[in-house]
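Handout, section B. The chain below has 212 residues.
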Amino acid sequence: MAFDYKKEYKEFYLPPQKPGLIMVPEMQYVAVRGRGNPNEPEGDYKKAMGTLYSIAFTIKMSYKGSHKIEGYFSYVVPPLEGLWQQEGMEGIDYTRKNELEWFSMIRLPEFVTPDEFTWAKREVEQKKGIDVSKAEYFRYEEGLCVQCMHIGSYDEEPETIRKMEEYVKEAGYRVDLSEGRKHHEIYLSDPRRTAPERLKTVIRQPVCRKDG
């Protein structure tokens, strides 16, 4: 059986629909930075998806080739994730999508080192002819966060975020968005195949004590 991060780490990928606090350790990702409306058909966000999945699946399928990665194990490619912000704002204004700054990413297994990541990029460029120069090897430790499962369209997320903010306030915390701590989403549904009202998205935001 292939290792499935969603099933093995349900606390990070399958939270309840009620907000809760969680300590998130450091994880590693393949990531691409960008800016603009993610819904543009030929925009940078769509291009970033091609980069992320090309590298992620090159690593996953590496066992079939001559390049053997030390410590490799069979696994399911984890879901797409995204860190989001807007310049000059603490939260996200969903009516101003052109101003969104995003950091799209896919989690990498623990056996992927910076050197193996470089190999995967080179492999994609040489064998698929895809420019993946914008792809980064990224390590991210979120620390204490509030998270919740959001079911519905992306444009309806503000109501779920409002409930999360109320929860942390009552618990003696506050949302702590900053340059190093960002609004985080994990996409468990394919919007091309799922009705908007049934989309499942993990929403996560960093928090700290009110007096912190």
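Note. The chain has one domain: 5-209. Compare this with the example in section A.
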